Amino acid sequence: MLEIRDLHVYYGVIHALKGISLTVAQGEIVALLGNNGAGKTTTLRTVSGLLRPRTGQVLLEGERIHGLPPHVIVGRGVAHSPEGRKVFNRLTVTENLEMGAYLRSDAGVQEDLDRAFTLFPRLRERRLQVAGTLSGGEQQMLAIGRALMARPRILLLDEPSMGLAPLLVEQIFETVAEVNRQGTTILLVEQNAAIALSVAHRAYVLETGSIALEGGAAELSEHPEVQRAYLGEAV
């Protein structure tokens, strides 16, 4: 479904992505693991059109999307739940969700709004509450729900566990797994390697803008380097 080929991305003179290549097949959850500064968020921002690559390709169903404006990429079926949630603080929960469907005019918007409230019952309880007054966990639910309102073929999910208590992290990832079971492909950036590998089918490990390791999630969870660097296990 999604293919990245030899992608090079710069921030000014800083070479952030150094020729990475990866694939995400339809129906998969693929995780990107790595420390801060490894290039994980840069990868998602490039796929969603917020950054333009110097060289390389981003293909969706074999068609080039790199270099297209972000709203066009959303229209092609790519939705991005960003790091830090980025909810519209002065809008209500319902209004935030509706913003996720701003490109749509079909009759299914209300159906997807109901789906978001089913996936995240707490949002239904707070549907008229201003988003800026929500807890961090509730804002994360809202950010994911807003992205799903675009009815994406692939969801880019950036650091959904950031700053959340362990119980909330578990709830969020149970919902991520359910979204995938319902048919949405997911490219997941996550520093909590253990929980990412528990839901992912495959994973890539990024180090300073390059892919250091790749493989099945179960395989990587047993890899000595992954255990030492990301799972906190002595090897």
SSE layout and pairings?
Layout: E1 2-11, E2 14-24, E3 29-33, H1 40-47, E4 55-60, E5 63-64, H2 70-76, E6 78-81, H3 93-99, H4 109-119, H5 121-125, H6 136-148, E7 154-158, H7 166-181, E8 185-189, H8 193-199, E9 202-207, E10 210-216, H9 217-221, H10 224-229
Task: Provide structural commentary.
- It is a single chain.
- The protein has 235 residues and is α/β, with parallel strands linked by helices.
- It has a domain of 164 residues: 3-Layer(aba) Sandwich (Rossmann fold), CATH 3.40.50.
- Helix content is 36%, strand content 26%.
- It is built from 10 helices and 10 strands.
- The strands form 2 sheets. It has a 6-stranded mixed beta sheet, with helices on both faces.
- A hairpin with a 2-residue loop joins β1 and β2.
- It starts with a strand and ends in a 6-residue tail after the last helix.
- The relative contact order is 0.18.
